[in-house]
Write a structure and sequence with these properties.
29% of the residues lie in helices and 32% in strands. By secondary structure, it is of the alpha+beta class. β12 and β13 form a beta hairpin. The chain starts with 7 loop residues before the first strand and ends with a helix. The longest helix has 20 residues, at 674-693. The chain has 17 helices and 37 strands. It has five domains: 5-199 and 250-280, Rossmann fold (3-Layer(aba) Sandwich); 283-392, Beta Barrel (Elongation Factor Tu (Ef-tu), domain 3); 402-473, Alpha-Beta Plaits; 478-591, Ribosomal Protein S5, domain 2 (2-Layer Sandwich), CATH 3.30.230.10; 596-676, Alpha-Beta Plaits (2-Layer Sandwich), CATH 3.30.70.240. The strands form eight sheets. The chain has an eight-stranded antiparallel β-sheet. Strands 2-3-1-4-5-11-6 form a seven-stranded mixed β-sheet, sandwiched between helices. Strands 29, 34, 35, 36 and 37 form a five-stranded antiparallel β-sheet that branches. The protein binds guanosine-5'-triphosphate and magnesium ion.
């Protein structure tokens, strides 16, 4: 069945790990009648956690999509993983939905990922709500969690539901807006509607008053009405709340215990009746001139859509997840892939309930569906009916922070390994695979050790390839610290005509980051023009492998001052060899030094770990640049040599019991000396010996 834009809602459930998102997703589908049974994460049969790796580990790893119908509206729900290793899949869900629901464990309150996700939603100015989970557990506290949200995010979340009791005494929730209660039932039975218990009448009335105020705020006509009459009609309430939420002025709060099927129906009504409809929200892209533009989500315009995710299914092959932004996407049609500048045949079109695909004929603006076996679609591609004047904004993904070098134990498997790594990178945009020509290794990088291990385990078990991994080599550089000059004459007498070329040059340090400058200061044709390219090639070769440890040389000016040629014996090759040797000779005399990459590091940890993280960073030769603290969470900014950070995701995990997270990016190169440099040189020599053994 197909739904029109105003009848579609897209909701992403996100939150810190293990806060109950998948259970909430499962039970919402059950409450909405989309699945006949409600499973537990432990059973390995939930709609969302269906992959082998998820069933084995009992955590979500991939974003899952399913839908249900409520009040005539189709509600698409994304269940996203909580571990920061899989942040990429959360971002695609945020990108494709108009409302974010943050699950917060009622015992733990706001946690690190909650804060990072909140900031991410801020960056998108995306309407959001909070769902306080596990109300049936001891020590869950609705009010305290709201206070925590207020302290950390400076917002007064507005309760749409209130819990009736907590822990062992938990009975259900009050639906504030609709003035009724929903009670938990024995076993797996759905929650049941009833009267608000007498002792909850006052808090329910007070909460309703707050909702009315929230609805009236920001709308002058409604506010006037409210002041006149002291109340709002249900229609006015809806109108006001829709407006307030769309403008991101209110943060609705819900309570529940999904595992007991509780607190779900009021949320479904909220999602159907009040959550933003895609048509009201809009999307963003870049025009032909590269400037960012707003794009209305509009069914009346010609087709445009965005590929938000690529996955592989053992039966259907490649699945391209598509958010339709304008017009409609029809099965058995033709579309244009703007990003690839190619036509694409759309064959069958599907919507999904987790891994289960259901065929549909068409999808309208605002909806999300799946196209199988496309020839050209890849994540981030813009699809249109033919118009190529704009492209939708890509997913804004974090940079990988953890890298590992990998190869197949048997050389014959290397190509096959490469193939699967390329596919993994297609499926997961935070996973990268590159062959580093400089260090001659295949390096994979991702958001953490867990993400890398899951991908490698999958290749090991599905493809039966034995893999070897090691810490990647660092891309060191070499440079010089003072001016020096040298000359070299390449001379050889062999059989016919010989080889002759003489090059005199000077080298001088350049400011860091300026790389290389070639100056030809030859007078009077000491080296004829046609041999200069040979000289330049020789210097390029000299720069490619420095004299200290064979790393590329940077930030050097090379000035050719003189030379000599022979009318018969000179050749480009002679001058190349002369220039290379002259450069190497000059470099030896210029007090060369090694440079190492320095990274900008941002660490997020709970304040109680701050001291341990700081002292660990100073042991890692880190320089602290700054530190902030918001509501118990510290953010530390530092510059640290890359060599010290190769296993940082593992180190930080152990310091913070898995709660800390970080981001890292290259900043600059800085000199190293003494023992550290000696070790780099020794390792480079060992590597050279090993290479020549191969
Ligand atoms: N008592 C109780 N336990 C719950 C409830 N909801 C979830 N749990 C349990 O909490 C654990 C984590 O639940 P999940 O639904 O997998 O949590 P998640 O947020 O999806 O986890 P990740 O996807 O790995 O981040 C499981 O053992 C659930 O059974 C609840 O309402 N009450
Ligand atoms: Mg989950």
């Amino acid at each position: 069945m197909s739904y029109s834009t105003e009848n579609i809602r897209n909701v992403s459930i996100a939150g810190h790990g293990q806060t109950g998102k998948t259970t909430l997703f499962e039970r919402l589908l059950y409450a909405g009648g989309a699945v006949p049974r409600a499973e537990t994460v432990e059973s390995g049969k939930t709609v969302s956690d269906y992959s082998t790796e998820e069933i084995e580990r009992k955590i979500s790893i991939h974003t899952a999509l399913a839908h249900l119908e409520r009040n005539g509206r189709k509600i698409n729900i994304f269940d996203t993983p909580g571990s920061s290793d899989f942040a990429g899949d959360v971002i695609l869900a945020f990108r494709a939905s108009e409302f974010g629901l943050l699950a917060i464990d009622g015992r733990a309150g706001v946690q690190i990922e909650t804060i990072k996700l909140w900031r991410n939603l801020d960056g998108r100015n995306k309407p959001r709500g909070i769902f306080i989970t596990k109300m049936d557990e001891d020590r869950t506290d609705f009010e305290k969690t709201l206070a925590d949200v207020k302290e950390k995010f400076k917002v007064d979340a507005v309760p749409f539901t209130l819990p009736i009791g907590s822990g062992a005494g938990y009975k259900g929730v009050i639906d504030v807006l609709n003035r009724k209660a929903w009670f938990i039932q024995p076993g797996d039975a759905p929650e049941k509607e009833g009267e608000i218990p007498a002792e909850y009448k006052d808090p329910a009335a007070a909460a309703l008053e707050r909702l009315i105020e929230a609805a009236a705020e920001g709308d002058d006509a409604l506010m006037e009405h409210y002041i006149d009459k002291g109340s709002l009609s249900p229609e006015e309430m809806h109108r006001g709340l829709i407006e307030a939420l769309s403008a991101n002025r209110i943060v609705p709060a819900f309570a529940g215990a999904a595992l007991r099927n509780s607190g779900l129906v009021p949320f479904l009504d909220f999602a159907a009746d009040i959550a933003p409809n895609p048509g009201a929200a809009g999307d963003r892209g870049t025009g032909a001139d590269g400037a960012e533009i707003g794009v209305a989500i509009d069914p009346a315009k010609p087709l445009s859509a965005l590929v938000i995710k690529t996955s592989y299914d053992q039966f259907s092959g490649k699945l391209s997840w598509i958010k339709v932004i304008n017009g409609k996407l029809a099965a058995d049609s033709e579309a244009f892939n703007v990003s690839e500048n190619k036509k694409e045949r759309i064959g069958k079109l599907y919507v999904c309930q987790g891994k289960k695909l259901e065929e549909v004929k068409e999808l309208f603006a605002g909806d999300v569906g799946i196209v199988t076996k496309s020839a050209t679609f890849k994540t981030n591609d813009t699809i249109t009916a033919g118009d190529a004047s704009m492209q939708f904004l890509h997913l804004r993904l974090p940079e990988p922070v953890h890298a590992v070098a990998v190869n197949a134990a048997a050389k014959k498997d290397d190509d096959k390994l490469g193939e699967f790594l390329v596919r993994a990178a297609e499926e997961d945009k935070t996973f990268r695979f590159v062959f580093n020509a400089e260090t001659r290794e295949s390096v994979i990088s991702a958001m953490g050790e867990l993400q890398i291990n899951i991908i490698l385990d999958k290749i090991r078990s599905n493809q039966k390839i034995e893999l070897e991994t090691h810490v990647p080599r660092i891309a060191y550089r070499e440079t010089i610290t003072k001016k020096a000059g040298a000359e070299y004459t390449h001379k050889k007498q062999t059989g016919g005509h010989g080889q002759y070329g003489k090059v005199v040059l000077e080298i001088a340090p350049l400011p860091r980051g300026e790389d290389y400058k070639f100056v030809n200061a030859i007078f009077g044709g000491a080296i004829p023009k046609n041999y200069i390219p040979g000289v330049e090639k020789g210097i390029a070769e000299g720069m490619a492998a420095g004299t200290m440890a064979g790393y590329p040389v940077v930030d050097v000016e090379v000035k050719i001052t003189d030379g000599k040629y022979h009318p018969v014996d000179s050749s480009e090759l002679s001058f190349k060899l002369a220039a290379r040797n002259a450069f190497r000779e000059a470099m030896r005399q210029s007090s060369p030094t090694l440079l190492e990459p320095i990274m900008n590091l941002t660490v997020f940890v709970e304040e109680k770990y701050l001291g341990d993280v700081m002292s660990d960073l100073s042991g890692k030769r880190g320089r602290i640049l700054g530190q902030d603290s918001v509501g118990g969470i510290a953010e530390i900014r530092a510059q640290v040599p890359q060599a010290e950070l190769l296993r940082y995701s593992i180190d930080l995990r152990s310091i913070t019991s898995g709660t800390g997270s970080f981001s890292v990016e290259f900043d600059h190169y800085a000199p190293i000396s003494g023992k550290i440099a000696d070790e780099v040189i020794k390792a480079a020599e060992a590597f050279k010996v090993q290479e020549s053994d191969d």
